[in-house]
Amino acid sequence: MLIVCLAVFTTGCGVPVPSVSIPIADIAVTKNDLIVQNRSGSVRYDVQITIDDKYTYVADVLPLGKSSLLLAEFVDDRGHRYKRGLLNIRNVMINMPDSIVGNRYYRW
């Protein structure tokens, strides 16, 4: 009996672990907007979104579905607004506070 129990516990339940994490937000960029699609299953509060590690926007509420955020609303630590130039956005980081697991960071 002990051998059977050990065999069951060491082999696992047979469900494979996902090889990649499933993002709970998608992003897209237009000429003037950053579009964030919240697919987390719930409305998120105090979401901080940072472009190129410099320009930040804090959304008091990020509803489910798509939200369009004006790129001009993103500011750096000196208060300068983001200006779309010749270069494309290199990266976007989203910090979604979660009361159960703490902060979740997603980077594109």
Walk me through what this model shows.
With 108 residues, this protein is mainly beta. It has one domain: Immunoglobulin-like, CATH 2.60.40. 9% of the residues lie in helices and 43% in strands. It contains one helix and seven strands; from the N terminus they run αβββββββ. It has one helix at residues 2-11, and strands at residues 25-29, 33-38, 44-51, 55-62, 65-70, 92-98, 102-107. It has a four-stranded antiparallel sheet, with no helix packed on it. It has a three-stranded antiparallel sheet with strand order 1-2-5, with no helix packed on it. It is globular, with a radius of gyration of 20 Å. The chain starts with a helix and ends with a strand.
Instruction: State the domain count.
Output: 1
From the N-terminal CA to the C-terminal CA, the straight-line distance is: 50 Å
What is the helix tally?
1
Radius of gyration equals: 20 Å
Question: Structural class, judged by helices and strands?
Answer: mainly beta
Write the layout of secondary structure elements.
Blueprint: H1 2-11, E1 25-29, E2 33-38, E3 44-51, E4 55-62, E5 65-70, E6 92-98, E7 102-107
Antiparallel strand pairs: 1-2, 2-5, 3-4, 3-6, 6-7
Which key phrases capture this entry?
108 residues; mainly beta; Immunoglobulin-like; 4-stranded antiparallel sheet; 1 helix; 7 strands; globular; disordered N terminus
